[in-house]
Structures are given as structure tokens and as C-alpha cells.
Specification:
2,3-Dihydroxybiphenyl 1,2-Dioxygenase, domain 1; 2 domains; four-stranded mixed beta sheet; 8 strands; globular; metal-binding; Glyas_Bleomycin-R_OHBP_Dase; metal ion binding; Fosfomycin_Res_Enzymes; Glyas_Fos-R_dOase_dom
């Protein structure tokens, strides 16, 4: 029917929480600390759409993301204006790649990354 959510484990919960809420502007639905797992679970939304579960665990193993490692390649966000989004993220301190044009759709996009080097794409709606 549709994708329900994406789960992300951050190496530093507070850093990841700040990134996804303050820099990307996702809204907190709920935040829970699970004592038995020594883990936070933060449910985040874009507008009214529940999209990301942000987790913390003690000492999670690193996951390679570059060069093109197996598994989830990147997370893509649809945005109204790619240029404005890129300018805003650069203003907030992110290192963003230059805007490119999708050779198949003709739409603009660019990449940046989260605090754990998860590639994030911002794609023209």
C-alpha cells in the first residue's frame, strides 16, 4: 500500500535528534526511552506524515555507506524548491553537493548527509 516508516540508528542520539528536528525540520510525534534496551526511540514526521523512527543503542557498529555499499543506499526527501532547500541547509552548516539534473526525469536534486554519513537526497517535487 505504501511505506510506513524508515528506521535510523544514530551513533549519538542528541546529535541525530538535533539534526533531524532542528536542521531538517521534522516534527516529533513521540519520544520514548526504553530502559531495558538502553535505547531512545524518536518518532518523527514531515507535516502529518509519520516517516522516521530514530533510535539510539549503546555502541552500534558502523555501517559503510561509501563507496556504494550493499543495503539501503540513501533516503530521499521531496521538496518544492531544490535551490531554496540547498541554500537553507548550507546556511545551517551542512556540506551539500552541487545541484544536478536527473537525466531521466529532468528534475533537480542534490545530496548531503546526516551526522552518521547516511546519504540524504533532496529531490524536486
Amino acid at each position: 500500500m505504501k511505506i510506513h516508516h524508515i528506521a535510523i540508528i544514530g551513533s549519538n542520539y542528541e546529535v541525530s535528534k538535533k539534526f533531524y528536528t532542528e536542521i531538517l525540520g521534522l516534527h516529533i510525534i513521540r519520544e520514548v526511552y526504553r530502559e531495558e534496551r538502553q535505547s531512545y526511540k524518536l518518532d518523527l514526521a514531515i507535516e502529518d506524515h509519520y516517516v522516521i523512527e530514530l533510535f539510539s543503542f549503546p555502541d552500534p557498529p558502523p555501517r559503510p555507506s561509501r563507496p556504494e555499499a550493499c543495503g539501503l543506499r540513501h533516503l530521499a526527501f521531496s521538496v518544492e524548491n531544490v535551490n531554496d532547500t540547498r541554500k537553507e541547509l548550507v546556511r545551517k552548516g551542512l556540506n551539500c553537493e552541487e545541484i544536478r539534473i536527473d537525466e531521466f526525469t529532468g528534475k533537480e536534486f542534490f545530496f548531503t548527509q546526516d551526522p552518521d554519513q547516511l546519504p540524504l537526497e533532496f529531490y524536486e517535487a
